[in-house]
Structure formats: structure tokens, C-alpha cells
Amino acid sequence: MKDKQGIRSPGLAVGSLALGAFASVTTEFIPVGILPDVADTFHISSGHAGLMMTLPGLLGALAAPGVLMAAGSTDRKRLLLSLSALLFASALISALAPSWTVMLIGRALAGMSMGAFWAMGLAAAGSLVSEEKAGTAIAAVFGGVTAAMVLGVPMGTLVSGYFSWRGAFIAASVLAALAFMMQAVLLPQIQAGESVNLRALGRFLLRPRGRKSVILIALSFATHFATYTFIAPLMRKAGIGTDIISWTLLGFGVSGFIANFVASRIVDQHLKQTLTAGLVLMAGSLAIMAVSHSHLLLVVAVLIWGAAWGAIPLCLNLGNRQASDSEAEAGSAMFTFTAQVSIAAGSAGAG
Fold this sequence. Notes:
single chain, mainly alpha
């Protein structure tokens, strides 16, 4: 990788990747808050509208290893800029979509951009700083993910309330444009690491730690997104108003952001304990949601769930990075591939 001493401001460079992650996740998850409105516009069911999450998940899964394998030794900065430009185009197409088919095309482009950006951005973040700071850099990029849950999904819901759901996608396109400009200015040239190919992915899966990592990622992401994709229509069906749903989604993100901050400080020394605590909290909160008829208890369970999810992806990614040894890009590709397949499977099954 490029000599880290030659990077003028590695912190700002990592920050540009965090903004890219924020833009990607905001664009991917915007349908969570506006799904009923989009369904009404195109006269389809909420389950059918769930394709706005399923399709990006499937294409993101293919793009994560596929783009890295096709990229070869291409400068990673150039690829990251191309993916941010694609994200901008996808958000704009979704905002202007005249039909359900065009909407799905926009969502497909979002999946391709997001899947490859996650795989490449996570590996790049660790390469921009010294090895002992790699965990902090990765946590910063995941901080962008959590920040999207704090501001992105609720922002989409609130903007939709004032300007319709199309305005939410316009806002997402602005975020993608800002990420592109920051990366163009702040990122150095980033040389490719070990080449990513089917053999490298196979070596990852042959390691016992690699297989365990894939199973944990698959179960965690599928469980989460089977419910999270439809949280707005589920809460509406329970009799909770739109304003309360918006504030609950904001609370979900805030609790997740706090948990991500706390976890990033302890996860290097207590990875297994932090992941276990997060999974137990998520399981407990989902169980409460399944049986409770109290609006207050339902909202509290969502907030606990948000705190759990604030820590879980960070733990899973750091464990996956440890399992990948020196092949960071192959490990990141497997992480993103597994996560996106699980997002698609969870949202499709629940839909």
C-alpha cells in the first residue's frame, strides 16, 4: 500500500470515506422510512415495495467481490470516485422515477455502488493509517454508517413529509455529490493490495475463523433487516403515528451512534464480549417487539435494538478483518458480499 507518511492528512482522508459511507447507507436505507409512500405512489403493496431494499442487497453482494476482481491493480482512489459518481446518479434516477421499473433501475445502481464502496472503502480506511490505528479508522467509516441511521433515515422521512419522498432522494443525491468532492480533494492515490480473485476468496473460506465470521455476519444481518426494512409499516400497523415513527427512527440512530462510539473504545480488547452483548440485546429487543401491545414498550425496544446494532457491525467487521490475515480486500469483499446477501434475504423473506 502507499507509504502512510506520504499522506498529508490521513484523518481527513478517512473522514471522506466516512462521508461516502454515510451517503451510501443513507441512499440504501431511505426506503425504510418512506416505503409506504412509495408503495402508494406506484400502487403496489408494502411487501412489493420491499424490493427497493432487496434488489440493492443482491447487486451489492455481486459488486463487492466482482468490482474488486475486475479492478485488478487500478488506483483505488479512481475507483472510489467512480462509485461515488454512480451513487449520485442512482439517487437522482430514483428521485425522478416516472415508473416502478425506473425506480428499480435506480435502486439497482445504488446497490452496485454501495456494495463495491463498502468493500473497497473499509480496506482503504485501514491502509490510510498505521496498523495500530486501523481499528479506529474502520470504526470511523462505520461511524458514517451509524450516522446515516441517526440522520439519514429520519432525514428521509422528515424531508418526505415536507417535499414528498422524491425530495428525500434529491437530498441523498446532494450527499453523494459532497462525498465525491471530498474524496477528490482529500484522498491520496491508493495502490491495490493483494489481488482479489476467486482463489483469495476461497482461502478466506478455508480458514475456520473465516467460515465462523461469514456465519455470524449472515445471521446477524438477515435477522436485523428482516424487521428493520419494514419497521415503518409495522409501527403504523400497531397504531403508532407518523411523527412518533420519525422520532423513534431518530432515537434508534442516536442510541446506535452512542453505542458505536463506546464500542470503538473497547472492541480491540474485548471483541467477543462486545459482540455477545450486542447480539443478546438485539435478540431481547426483537422478542419484546414480537409480543408487546404497548406503544411505549415497543418504542423502548426499538431504542435498545438501535444500541445493539450500533456495536454489532463494527464487531463483525473487526473480527472479519482479523480472519482475513494479510488479504484485507478479500476479507472486506467477503464481509460485504455476505452482508448484502443477508440484507436481500432478510428483507425479501419478511416482505
